[in-house]
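Researcher: Please translate sequence to structure tokens.
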Amino acid sequence: MIRASKNSDFDEIYTIINDSASAYKGVIPNDRWHEPYMSKEQLRAEIADGILFFCYCENEQIKGVMGFQEKSDVNLIRHAYVRTNIRNRGIGGLLLEYLRTFSKRPILIGTWADASWAIRFYEKYDFQIVLGTEKDFLLKRYWTIPERQVETSVVLKELGYRSNSYK
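Model: Translation complete:
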């Protein structure tokens, strides 16, 4: 079952994010990694900034989360994580397809350039990688992240999405 998160899910979402994000350790640039990967304060700030988390649950336990954020003329997929011990069982795909069903705007996804498994996952669902000037434009327009993260990230867009104003 997939449902919108509740306030009472906060600690479990925090735990899942930091458990799953351990996959980034030693992969993303060392200056971008920290423990915990996302603090409770950062998570609260992301929620306050408009990220709505959706939870994949089995037997009333959250197994995976994916954030959805409306930003001007697009929607962003943010903070997609599945518990480490149950990865590769289709939970991320179910969450992504669920969020796509009610998005009336193009969807963009940002991830670390070195997170090849994440890029392959999104490409499997018909997202294509954006690089160079367009990537930088999109990250600076729709995300609030440090310049170093812009340098070390990629954007994936739905096939057919055109961001003509980046040139």
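Researcher: Any highlights?
Model: The two ends are 42 Å apart (CA to CA).
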